[in-house]
Amino acid sequence: CEGLGERRYRAVQLFRWIHQRGARSFAQMTDLAKPLRAKLEAAAELRPLVLRAEQASADGSVKWLFDVGGGNAVETVFIPEADRGTLCVSSQAGCAVGCRFCSTGHQGFSRNLSTGEIVGQLWFAEHHLRRRLALGAGERAVSNVVLMGMGEPLHNYAALLPALRTMLDDHGYGL
Description:
With 175 residues, the chain is of the alpha+beta class. The chain contains five helices and seven strands; from the N terminus they run H-H-E-E-E-E-E-H-E-H-E-H. The protein starts with 8 loop residues before the first helix and ends in a 7-residue tail after the last helix.
């Protein structure tokens, strides 16, 4: 926002629109002036992950497969419980560790996910589930995140740390 000549508080507005409200376009951000929305359209993009498949279980668990380009896909799993909703998030496409007990390791390593791809899994799950479960404005579907999808999270530390900050931020997901 500062790079566009805007005041810093605009960044908080954008952050809330994207992460709390699930905005899919700058045009939806109706409390931002039209000239600012035009600047944002020219300088940035809001692009959700591409959903390849969804599987729902009788217990309410949902698994999504997201296309992250280059022939790579990652899994994200939502596990509902009486007192919380847990989201298992991937941090890499594949895995380089190769643990015997893990099928991901047998696939090999393709690449690290970007911060946006990591947060994008939470963004999709939270807003998709809010609509599906008809949750109110202040209600959350996801109450905690575990990094136990595909990959070894600390092998992607540079992208993981800002993703975690976004997940924890009260203007974001407040986890």
